[in-house]
Amino acid sequence: MLKQKTQLHWFQEGDANTKYFHALVRGRRRRLFIHQIHNENEECIQGEDNIAHAARAHFQGFFIGQEERVNEDILQLIPRSVTQEQNQSLQAMPTIEELKTVVFSMNPNSAAGPDGMGESFFMSAGISLRKEGNIHWASWESLSFPIDEGGIGFRNLNDVCKALQFKQWWNFRTKNSLWGQYLRAKYCQRANPIAKKFDSGQSLIWKYMMQNKHTMESHISWKLNSVSCQFWWDNWLAIGPLSHHINISVRFNNSSVSQFLIQGSWIEGMLRQHVPPHLVRKILNL
């Protein structure tokens, strides 16, 4: 992992895991991180989500032009730099030797491609290209289908990572672990985790948790057995968090359901003071 992050190609196997390598990793991360950009109006844009939105809007306007008919006659004036023979050679399937040369000349510590596989995976697996038989190319997505659906049963790494990220949020929400306590103390000192948004500079783990929390929360429901769930943020009424059904901000309100009960009965006056009337009836009917 450090080899890949430092982007060094000249050190020997067995070099110590020293401060030097960690300094290179941190320095490269600082150089690559985009803290702010300026838009067409010279306005400063900060924050990861805002920067992404501005960049997307810029290139959408840059590549989307007006619908005008192009005069293709002018294309005939462009000289041909590639002959027909060269064009056929470029379109020809690569030979086995060409494939071997390309694959095994790549840097094994380079970043993984869209399929999630780096060059070290193929080299360590000892893949050999043989001349016998024809080569039938297929996408990783097709190979990930079950055998009875035309695939060969490979696991889609994107699905595996997504499942583990969902499990991470589930453990964070349901277990009082030391790891969960640390994240709450670092990122949720006042606001509820459901109300939090990712800010630039926060950890990558927290970023993925913030991206996946809404998908996960839509599949999590709470029962009022111990009435310890949170009144505004837990889905105990089967309609999603109550905070999504009111017009006031309760971002910093972490009241539990038990605070709206007395001796097992709802405090109706308190409910009517904070909750819309149609939801009060629904709560009283539980």
Terminal Cα span: 53 Å
The main β sheet shows up as: 2 strands, antiparallel
- Any idea what the shape is? elongated
Q: Report the C-alpha radius of gyration, rounded.
A: 28 Å
Quote the beta fraction. Answer: under 5%
Helix content: 40-55%
- Low-confidence regions: none
* Largest sheet: spatial strand order: 1-2
Number of helices: 12
Describe the structure.
Among the domains are: 158-220, no CATH class; 221-286, no CATH class. The protein has helices spanning 2-6, 19-32, 48-63, 84-91, 96-105, 119-124, 140-143, 157-174, 178-187, 204-217, 268-274, 277-284, and strands at 36-38, 44-46, 261-262, 265-266. 42% of the residues lie in helices and 3% in strands. α8 packs across α10 (204-217). The strands form 2 sheets. It has a two-stranded antiparallel ribbon with strand order 1-2. It has a two-stranded antiparallel sheet with strand order 3-4. It is mostly helical and 286 residues long.
